[in-house]
Amino acid sequence: MSTIDPFARFGEVPLFSLTSSVMTDGGPLAAAQYGVGAGGADVSPDLHWSGFPAETRSFALTVYDPDAPTGSGYWHWAVFNIPADVDSLPTGAGVANSVLLPAGAVVMPNEIRRPTFIGAAPPRGTGTHRYQFVLHALDVAHLGVDPQATPAVLGFNVHFHTLARAVLEATAFAGGAEA
């Protein structure tokens, strides 16, 4: 579990555990989690969580690069309405129209307007980037967010329903997975 909560400035909430077999908190992303153009495969990692509040009614997951040279970061994946009885996502759940996501889960378009996971691809000259996998435990079973909205709109709505959150932050290096 990350000791740094990128959302702490909006008010403290309890933290719970988010892990992956292919990532460690603060460690590098595996080659498969890089973008195809950066030597990877655009494969979403497996994610497992525990320790969330008993009153959790659903989850929302975002994957964000705050270090992208955009002035506003870069959203790689956003999924909401993950049922409360789900405590993991398998490797590859981030493909378009994935049958690996639980029934009812909604995937939003990422920065390239595709409802998929897009891997890391920091441009040369921009150094090391952080990839924040953030899972929010929510007090509602369904968020009424337009599925075609942006992950930032999701974040705004999630803010008002978060009971607890888990953060797993990995890094990627400019130049690609083989750098």
Produce the secondary structure layout:
Elements: E1 17-19, E2 47-50, E3 58-65, E4 74-83, E5 88-89, E6 106-107, E7 128-138, H1 151-159, E8 162-173
Antiparallel strand pairs: 1-2, 2-5, 3-4, 3-7, 4-6, 7-8
Can you put this structure into words, describing what you see?
This protein has 179 residues and is mostly beta strands. The chain has one domain: PEBP-like (Phosphatidylethanolamine-binding Protein), CATH 3.90.280.10. The chain is built from 1 helix and 8 strands; from the N terminus they run E-E-E-E-E-E-E-H-E. A 5-stranded antiparallel beta sheet has the order 6-4-3-7-8, with helices on one face. The protein is globular. The mean pLDDT is 94.
Question: What is shown here, in short?
Answer:
With 179 residues, this protein is mostly beta strands. It has 1 helix and 8 strands.
The CATH class assignment is Alpha Beta
Unreliable spans: none
Global outline: globular
Please tally the β strands and state the result.
Answer: 8
Q: Helix segment count?
A: 1
The proportion of strand residues reads 25-35%
The mean pLDDT is 94
User: How does CATH name the architecture?
Assistant: Alpha-Beta Complex
Compressed to H and E, one letter per element, the order equals: EEEEEEEHE
User: Measured on Cα atoms, how large is the radius of gyration?
Assistant: 15 Å
Structural category is: mainly beta
